Amino acid sequence: MLHLYVIRHGETEWNKEKRSQGRLDSSLTDKGKEDARSLGARLQDTEFRQIISSPSGRTLETARLVKGERTIPILTDERLMEIDLGAWQGKTENEIKSLYPEEFDAYWNEPEVYKSVGGETLLQVQQRLLVFFENLEKTVTDGNVLIVTHGVVIKTLYLLCRDSSLKHLWEPPFIHGTSLTIVTLDSGKKELLLEACVSHCS
What we know:
- The chain has helices spanning about 15, 30-40, 55-65, 95-100, 100-110, 120-140, 150-160; strands at about 1-10, 50-55, 75, 145-150, 180-185, 190-195.
- It has a six-stranded mixed sheet, with helices on both faces.
- It has a single domain (about 1-85, about 120-195), classed as 3-Layer(aba) Sandwich (Rossmann fold).
- The longest helix has 18 residues, at about 120-140.
- Helix 2 packs across helix 3, helix 4 (about 95-100) crosses helix 5 (about 100-110) and helix 6 (about 120-140) crosses helix 7 (about 150-160).
- It contains seven helices and six strands.
- It is an alpha/beta fold.
């Protein structure tokens, strides 16, 4: 059985500005870095078979801070990248709401029918994550794996664990920066053991 330690990247400058990142990137804030180091201290006695990160800068920086002095390499996998938000990327929440009111409303209120302007659907995110897990289980059969990814990816993971539909995507818990979720993976079955824990955060 695999134990997956799934964390969201630390807070970024664009998170503070409520600016959509998607496949674009921005730097971790001081709080983001501090929370990642605190999570590393929390997990210092946990031995990981692998560390796998989204290739985005914000996730890689978080992974390095959580990894600490471990000698294990950080692998990257594009299937862990944040949802491609297309034309929304780099814009603030208010700008998106003004320019794309129908899509914005669907994204937050009817995620199962949301259609991106030049990017991905939420179902596409979930499907690539499912393939990632299927492949992971073929290569790592047991032990602990640290996964550093993004908020929307983690929300779709919750639905996979609960066998729930996309319309429930935004139900609690909220996925804060460096929040820790622990999932067991056994013969394709996923079970949530810990949800979006931020007890290490300042």
